[in-house]
């Protein structure tokens, strides 16, 4: 519900005369938008733009976008809310995104080929569109590769506002990437509210499926740009390649995003974990160099030998989290969560997935863990397992007032995917996690 009691299809203080009120149904068609009347505008003027913006900033993102379609006054307040300092806004959890892959390639058929889980409205999934040449999602943006040497991007879920923004194209990469590179996006040093974006591309050697052996030792490349301006005004800076120790003989594409789990820590370090090798290294965005050599995170008895390992971040992105699949006698039996000390990689146990949940998720085939800001999503990748998904929220830690609480896990099931996912012909589901940023939807205003 939005301020004033307005709901779709019901009367409200702003719709007394039955005036048609425009709204977006989440990701459906954008309907006619009323411009508001004098009484409505006067009422909100008396409340004050700053107070209205503060009220709207406490709403979930999709509710705020619906509110912005009611009248000009609310839209202006929503735009102002998108520019409030972080401490003045409602804290939100990152979204989970799922999309189908066939031999590492996103299917071209079908208008809506992906699904998003909004933790603020957790009863259902949102279907949306990713470009056919999609390669990664990070920092609130979807990244596509029109060719092996090009990278283009646009805000995730721009359809929420009834339209699809044209992709912005970065200049050509120095080294072509044929196989789903690792892509990260973070606010550039010194920029405010995402005015400047720093992009990182690493790995991506070889062809999808490992059909052709191409050198994996491609340089890590960095590029700083205005995400809403001229994205091509600059050049990529080359740095050292992704450490080869992160790869594994168990993977035919050891430097692709399908084999590497990334996490941005503290806005400065990109931690990269080899899913099969369970080795971790970090790229220092300030020094523009990888820490060497990579180290294994398995350190019995605290962290047992893992069949697969993934990295995420704790609340506010200050420390890494490790999620690992533990096998015993070849059977997947548990999924544990550990907090990791960034400098030494020393780990401390946080919790473990409940046994019944683990049997349902881990017993269906491969899994993928993605997460940030204290949330880890665990997704079954195989069709025969129904793509079961659950969430782990890591609670405790620094309470913001100088206190420290012991970390713990809170687990919950996500709703089943829409029936359309089962009819799409998708045989394998890939996942990524990203915030959805309100400012991306109003920047054009």
Structure characterization notes:
It is a single chain. By secondary structure, this protein is mainly beta. The chain is built from 7 helices and 25 strands. The strands form 6 sheets. Strands 12, 13, 14, 15 and 16 form a 5-stranded antiparallel β-sheet that branches. Strands 3-2-1-25 form a 4-stranded antiparallel β-sheet, with no helix packed on it. Strand 5 (141-144) and strand 6 form a beta hairpin.
The rough form would be described as globular
N-to-C span: 25 Å
β-strand percent reads 25-35%
Question: Any idea what the radius of gyration is?
Answer: 22 Å
> How would you characterize the largest beta sheet?
5 strands, antiparallel
| Residues in helices, as a percent range | 10-25%
Mean pLDDT: 79
InterPro entries: F-box-like_dom_sf, F-box_dom, Kelch-typ_b-propeller
Protein name: F-box domain-containing protein
Domain F-box: 54-79
Region (Disordered): 1-38
Put the structure in a nutshell.
This protein is mainly β. It is built from seven helices and 25 strands. β23 and β24 form a beta hairpin.
Descriptive keywords:
single chain, 445 residues, mainly beta, five-stranded antiparallel beta sheet, four-stranded antiparallel beta sheet, 33% strand, globular, Kelch-typ_b-propeller, F-box domain-containing protein, F-box_dom
Write the layout of secondary structure elements.
Layout: H1 38-47, H2 49-57, H3 61-68, H4 72-81, E1 95-101, E2 114-117, E3 125-128, E4 134-138, E5 141-144, E6 152-155, E7 168-169, E8 182-187, E9 197-202, E10 219-225, E11 237-241, E12 260-265, E13 269-274, E14 279-284, E15 289-290, E16 295-296, E17 306-313, E18 320-328, E19 331-340, E20 347-352, H5 355-362, E21 367-372, E22 375-380, E23 389-398, E24 404-413, H6 419-423, E25 428-434, H7 439-442
Antiparallel strand pairs: 1-2, 1-25, 2-3, 4-5, 5-6, 6-7, 8-9, 9-10, 10-11, 12-13, 13-14, 14-15, 14-16, 17-18, 18-19, 19-20, 21-22, 22-23, 23-24
InterPro entries: F-box-like_dom_sf (IPR036047), F-box_dom (IPR001810), Kelch-typ_b-propeller (IPR015915)
Region (Disordered): 1-38
Organism: Urochloa decumbens
């Amino acid at each position: 519900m939005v301020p004033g009691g307005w709901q779709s299809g019901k009367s409200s203080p702003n719709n007394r005369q039955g005036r048609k009120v425009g709204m977006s149904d989440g990701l459906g068609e954008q309907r006619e938008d009323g411009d508001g009347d004098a009484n409505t505008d006067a009422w909100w003027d008396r409340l004050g733009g700053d107070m209205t913006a503060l009220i709207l900033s406490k709403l979930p993102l999709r509710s705020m976008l619906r509110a912005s379609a009611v009248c000009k006054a609310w839209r202006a307040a929503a735009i102002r809310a998108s520019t409030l300092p972080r401490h003045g806004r409602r804290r939100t959890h990152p979204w989970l995104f799922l999309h189908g892959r066939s031999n590492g390639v996103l299917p071209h058929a079908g208008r809506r080929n992906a699904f998003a889980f909004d933790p603020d409205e957790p009863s259902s999934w949102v279907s949306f569109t990713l470009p056919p040449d999609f390669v990664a999602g990070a920092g609130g943006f979807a990244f596509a590769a029109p060719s092996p040497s090009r990278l283009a991007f646009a805000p995730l879920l721009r359809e929420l506002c009834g339209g699809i923004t044209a992709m912005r194209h970065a200049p050509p990469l120095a080294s072509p990437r044929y196989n789903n590179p690792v892509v990260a996006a973070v606010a550039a040093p010194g920029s405010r509210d995402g005015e400047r974006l720093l992009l990182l591309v690493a790995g991506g050697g070889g062809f999808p499926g490992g059909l052709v052996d191409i050198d994996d030792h491609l340089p890590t490349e960095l590029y700083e740009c205005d995400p809403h301006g001229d994205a091509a005004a600059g050049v990529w800076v080359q740095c050292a390649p992704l450490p080869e120790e992160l790869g594994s003989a168990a993977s035919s594409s050891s430097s692709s995003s399908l084999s590497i789990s990334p996490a941005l820590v503290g806005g400065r370090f990109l931690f990269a974990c080899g899913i099969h090798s369970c080795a971790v290294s970090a790229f220092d965005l300030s020094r523009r160099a990888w820490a060497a050599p990579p180290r294994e995170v398995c350190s019995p008895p605290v962290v047992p030998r893992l069949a697969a390992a993934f990295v995420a971040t704790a609340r506010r992105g200050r420390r890494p989290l490790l999620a690992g699949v533990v096998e015993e006698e070849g059977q997947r039996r548990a999924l544990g969560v550990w907090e990791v000390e960034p400098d030494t990689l020393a780990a401390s146990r946080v919790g473990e997935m409940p046994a019944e949940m683990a049997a349902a998720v881990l017993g269906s085939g491969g899994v993928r863990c993605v997460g940030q800001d204290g949330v880890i999503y665990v997704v079954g990748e195989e069709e025969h397992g129904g793509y079961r998904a659950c969430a782990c929220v890591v609670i405790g830690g620094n309470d913001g007032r100088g206190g420290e609480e012991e970390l713990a896990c809170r687990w919950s099931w996500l709703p089943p995917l829409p029936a359309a996912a089962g009819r799409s012909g998708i045989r394998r589901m890939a996942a990524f996690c990203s915030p959805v940023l309100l400012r991306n939807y109003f920047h054009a205003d």
